Amino acid sequence: MATIAQRKVTVVGAGYVGSTCAHLLSMKDLASEIVLIDVVEGRPQGIALDMNQSAAVEDFGGRVIGTNDPKDTAGSDIVIMTAGLPRKPGMSRSDLLETNAKIINTVADYVRHGSPDAHVIVVTNPLDSMVTLMRARTGFPGARVTGMAGVLDSARFSWFIAEATKANVQDVRAMVLGAHGDSMVPVPNYCTVNGVQLKDLVDKAKIEAMATRTKGGGAEIVNLLKTGSAYYAPASSSVAMAKAILNDEKRMLPCACFLNGQYGFEGIYMGVPAILGKDGVERIVEIPLDLDARAQMQKTAGAILADVQLLRDKRLM
Ligand code: A3D
């Protein structure tokens, strides 16, 4: 991994999630060059200029480069892929499949040629099939292509736990596995408030209600916003993953990882706890799951495989 001074991070898509990622990357001084690329002329350039003009006030040293030219992304250490349509009220993430798959393929082609050593963090929905497609199209090793979902879903669960227990959210640790969709798997047995198990703090019905609200966490925000979907917490979660890789932090974060037999699955992406460091996914952590959670993991795998099969049927993968 390059030193801080030489780091280059590309954010693909200068929409809500992408521009918030670029802002966080610059404010946290995570890269000397942050390339923000979009197909809309002027948008990434305007956002970059605006952000660079905040540098003197916020005291950060990196430079944001707005562009429409894929050549400017060459030599990136990390690519955060946020380009693609977001959901509208009433839409499922899978409704975005075909349109966003075409965008993933376009971007994968220039990342493969221009940034062959990059780590790619996919955010575009439907997440699990889009990260599968990104890995297949780039041909990168699974350890270098991950999907952002578990960090966000766990952060949502953490917030609901903090509210229910009246604890500081900084003391909450929550875990959500599986697909990023209605079949995601919140795992209350692995949720604690400063080491105290969730089941010792709130009753079962409340835990179930929070798990259900977490599963619908994205839709709740889509319905409130009416246009577009969540972006502050998704961007924070994506940048946390990028930071763990750039700084070799060895953080254990739940994210969509390429499974090679772990949890009984082979050759598919699924949200699981992983140690992230300079080599990307350095270890997939297998935690014992109860019967119910295991059944839910099977169901979630079915949902992911159905989307991947659709991509194959439509010859997009
Ligand atoms: P939005 O604000 O519409 O931004 C998307 C941007 O992508 C737009 O500026 C487009 O012009 C741009 N774009 C389209 N095609 C290309 C291309 N080929 N190259 C570069 N840029 C392109 O959406 P958003 O930022 O709110 O969301 C972006 C994606 O992230 C959507 O697919 C969302 O569903 C997804 N998302 C995922 C999560 C997860 O937790 C996984 C959370 C939030 C959003």
Fold and architecture overview:
It is a single chain. This protein is of the alpha/beta class and 317 residues long. The protein has 2 domains: 8-147, 3-Layer(aba) Sandwich (Rossmann fold), CATH 3.40.50.720; 150-312, Lactate dehydrogenase/glycoside hydrolase, family 4, C-terminal (L-2-Hydroxyisocaproate Dehydrogenase, Chain A, domain 2, Alpha-Beta Complex). Helices cover 41% and strands 20% of the residues. The chain has 10 helices and 14 strands. The chain has helices at 16-27, 43-52, 55-58, 97-114, 127-138, 150-165, 204-215, 217-225, 232-246, 291-313; strands at 8-12, 33-37, 63-67, 78-81, 119-122, 145-147, 172-173, 176-177, 185-186, 192-193, 196-197, 251-260, 266-277, 280-284. It has a 6-stranded parallel β-sheet with strand order 3-2-1-4-5-6, sandwiched between helices. It has a 3-stranded antiparallel β-sheet with strand order 7-10-11, covered by helices on one side. Strand 8 and strand 9 (185-186) form a beta hairpin. Helix 4 runs parallel beside helix 5 (127-138), helix 5 packs across helix 10 (291-313) and helix 6 (150-165) crosses helix 9. The protein is globular, with a radius of gyration of 19 Å. The relative contact order is 0.14. Bound molecules: 3-acetylpyridine adenine dinucleotide. 3-acetylpyridine adenine dinucleotide (A3D) binds at residues 12-18, 37-40, 82-87, 96, 100, 103, 106-107, 123-125, 127, 148-149, 152, 180, 228-231, 234.
